[in-house]
């Protein structure tokens, strides 16, 4: 199949491109930054905001993945408008192009944070996009799969990746530090496992579905830090820096609850029959 990965130079996208190519697909990558080049993978340098370039890149493809996003939570707090523009508006434009180009499948990289009250503007942007994709797919018969990732780790991750930050600090400062509480738990998943699962969802049985891709084992961060302490021969106790305002969930992301309406019932002073007559007269005056 001919597959385009928007944001394909990033952590997940670059691994996805490599494995899809090994599986004999014709792969193209669209990204504003070009790195990790592989033979016979076409790289298109362009921003997700460039509509004409996107149209050319999407044309003739069977499957389009969108991995482009402002994905760092703290960055989203600093740049809420840019986060919404990239993660929601430009994704909506990609959907519209996919509809016009009659793409067979659209795959959107979302996050487990859509289930959380944490995640700040990053979470809000992904929730909004998910709702838009669901409605768009239903209205225009565009097959899609939304994939929500848990805690992904592995080579090629950014400096902001949770596990990478811990390991970097262990190497550079000979200390173990975690930005969260000692009660924190995560389901870690290696990037290659996450990518292989992302390829599986191309199958039509995943059409119009939301799929959670995460590890099958819940790990206590305290146990992970103890294990890292032995690996790096660090005897000092781990340091936990918990700040709920940073936007990260602690033990579980499944705590999002929509606000209940505050009901305000109004005793109308207007007669319905008289109001209908008013509208009737207004329409008559328009002729």
The major pleated sheet works out as: 7 strands, parallel
Task: Give me the number of helical elements.
Answer: 9
**Overall CATH architecture of the domain at 2-156 and 187-217:** 3-Layer(aba) Sandwich
How are the strands of the biggest sheet laid out side by side? 3-2-1-4-5-6-11
Structural class: alpha/beta
> Beta-strand percentage?
15-25%
Distance between the termini: 57 Å
Radius of gyration: 23 Å
CATH topological fold name of the domain at 2-156 and 187-217: Rossmann fold
- Helix and strand element order: EHEEHEHHEHEEHEEEHEEHEH
CATH H level, superfamily name of the domain at 2-156 and 187-217: NAD(P)-binding Rossmann-like Domain
Backbone shape: globular
How much is the average pLDDT?
A: 92
CATH level 1 class label of the domain at 2-156 and 187-217 = Alpha Beta
What is the number of beta strands? 13
Q: Percent helix among the residues?
A: 40-55%
Report low-confidence residues grouped into runs of 5 or more: none
């Amino acid at each position: 199949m001919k597959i385009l990965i928007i944001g394909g130079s990033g952590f997940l996208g670059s691994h996805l491109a490599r494995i899809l190519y090994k599986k004999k697909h014709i792969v193209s990558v669209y990204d504003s930054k070009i790195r990790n080049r592989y033979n016979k993978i076409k790289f298109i340098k362009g921003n997700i905001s460039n509509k004409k370039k996107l149209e050319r890149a999407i044309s003739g493809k069977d499957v389009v993945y969108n991995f482009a996003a402002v994905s760092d939570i703290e960055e989203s707090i600093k740049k809420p408008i840019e986060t919404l523009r990239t993660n929601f508006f430009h994704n909506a434009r990609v959907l519209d192009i996919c509809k016009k180009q009659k793409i067979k499948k659209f795959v959107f990289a979302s996050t487990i944070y859509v289930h959380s009250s944490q995640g700040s503007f990053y979470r809000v942007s992904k929730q909004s996009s998910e709702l838009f994709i669901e409605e768009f797919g239903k209205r225009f018969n565009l097959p899609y799969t939304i994939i929500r990732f848990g805690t992904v780790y592995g080579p090629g991750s950014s400096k902001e990746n949770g596990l990478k930050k811990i390991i970097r600090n262990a190497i550079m400062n000979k200390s173990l530090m975690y930005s969260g509480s000692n009660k924190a738990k995560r389901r870690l998943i290696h990037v290659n496992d996450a990518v292989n699962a992302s390829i599986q969802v191309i199958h039509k049985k995943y059409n119009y579905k939301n799929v959670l891709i995460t590890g099958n084992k819940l790990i206590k961060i305290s146990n992970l830090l103890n294990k890292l302490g032995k690996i790096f021969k660090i005897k000092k106790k781990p340091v936990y820096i918990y700040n709920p305002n940073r936007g990260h969930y602690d033990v579980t992301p499944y705590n999002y609850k929509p606000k209940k309406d505050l009901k305000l019932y109004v005793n109308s002073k207007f007669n319905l029959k008289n109001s209908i007559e008013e509208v009737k007269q207004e329409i008559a005056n328009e002729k």
